[in-house]
Design brief:
CATH topology of the largest domain in chain B: FAD/NAD(P)-binding domain
Helix content of chain A: 10-25%
Radius of gyration of chain B: 23 Å
Shape of chain B: globular
Largest interface: A-B, 41 and 45 residues
Number of domains of chain B: 3
Oligomer: heterodimer
Structural class of chain B: alpha/beta
Number of domains of chain A: 2
Distance between the termini of chain A: 12 Å
Low-confidence stretches of chain B: none
CATH class of the largest domain in chain A: Alpha Beta
Helix content of chain B: 10-25%
Mean pLDDT of chain A: 94
Amino acid sequence: MKRVYVNEEWCLGCHLCEYNCAYSNSGIKDMVKALKGKTITPRIHVEDGGKIHYAVSCRHCEDPLCIKGCISGALTKDENGVVTIDHDKCVGCLTCMLLCPYGCITTDENETVLKCELCIKNGGIPACVQGCPNRAIIFEEAEE
Amino acid sequence: MKYVIIGNGPAAVSCIDGIRSVDAEGSITVVSKEAHPAYFRPLISYYLEGKSKEDNIYCRPENFYQKKHVETVLGEAVAIDTNNKIVALSGGENIPYDRLCICSGSSPFVPPMKGLDTLEKQFTFLTIDDSFALEQAVDKDSRVLIIGAGLIGLKCAEGLRDRVKQVTVCDLAPRVLSSILDDECAAVVQEHLESCGITFALANTADHFDGSTAYMKDGSEIEFDVLVLALGVRPNIGFFKDAGGECNRAIIVNNDMKTSIDGIFAAGDCVEQEDITFGNKRIMALLPNANIGGYTAGVNMAGGEQQFDNALPMNSIGFWGLHIMTAGTYANDGNAQMIEEKGEKSIKRFFVKENKLIGFILIGDVKSAGIYTNLVRSQADISAFDFDALIKNPNLLPFGEIYRRKTLRGVV
């Protein structure tokens, strides 16, 4: 399956992916209205350490621990292998956050669990990838 | 091959998935006391709170049993004839098996208490039917007394608060969540719960009852309309013990989920298995372990080979916005070093032994906690990287570029 992959050596640390993610998932057409004056809750985040920068988002693991621990059945794998969340089922217990080895689960201000769903609910091409100025984030089949 | 599963919770449906991942043909029979498809038990409090709708509590889609060719039988297993490989049900029915998996869970523990028989409205809190019954029993004028300030009692308090006039929780232990928190962390949680409207009577419990009065151990009296008994649970293992199976407090299993009796496996809340952070077997009655254990049992029952060799206890629980996470072993037994990181509204406590993170408690700041859980689970040598940086900010930086290339640039 196609996943979002990160080339650490090309990441500039600009954090644009976080804004593109928040905008894409906001459901609001106007980027200014979607982002201005708001605390964004993106599903991808950039970690910075001196000269090192890289983005982290859901790895869509082959055998995801988050799903094994989900107490409400909100997290499931779809037929293409994408780990998705059903917000009607999620009760915000955060067991998935306790289990994800990569720190990819986050929440919004309402304590609803947010995670990368590869933009399958908003266009199909991940917004973080489309907006990355240096192609540090790519969307492709895994290299073997 | 005839597969029989006793119980129908998350461990049981994961067991079905495990069996079917290897064997599409063999017959599977599930025996259950509860007349519901498998549901997520932790949701019973969220149902009361209104966060989970009744049709959203089930573990699998409606057609799951049909699709997996599973026969369901309503009944309670009372005996196993291990020589003839037969499970006897309370109704007299006998079910033959080649491979058996016990996923029978646990039942509420209710000690003998004087005057319980004088109470009109008393409940335990472990099944969705308990939730339905409580929902009917309470109204906005109800005063609820919950005995037990553990996970079950406190989640019940959260579920009921907005439906009733008053919720009081008492416990003989001097602190809330005594099985997973130390004094200081418990005090933070208690203060938060009190600010949310819950009243506590700790280091104190009901001695006896009369009508609508609880006479407490310290001599005080509490008036109430509805009683919830949340004093803990006991695994449902009597029939296995009677058959000669090896038990401690629960059924002893190995990492392949086999019991001491040939052809019999077990998973879920009724088992004791090795806790990698403790070096010994214990009950870890938690949903992730039920799912992984059940699946592992199923694969092995069907002739596959799978191990569940990294079990550890863990909890993620929240009350009105305050999140609490724990994992591993964190009793300060003198052998482990405690490293603490405090924020304005948060406490993080890490327990390190022989350069391994063996457990932690997080209150308030639970961001990216899975990075810590992964260190506990993998028993990594934390002296190999900057653990102090991780304590402040859990991220992938300290693990180095090679690890990141593997996890962020490859399939995991």
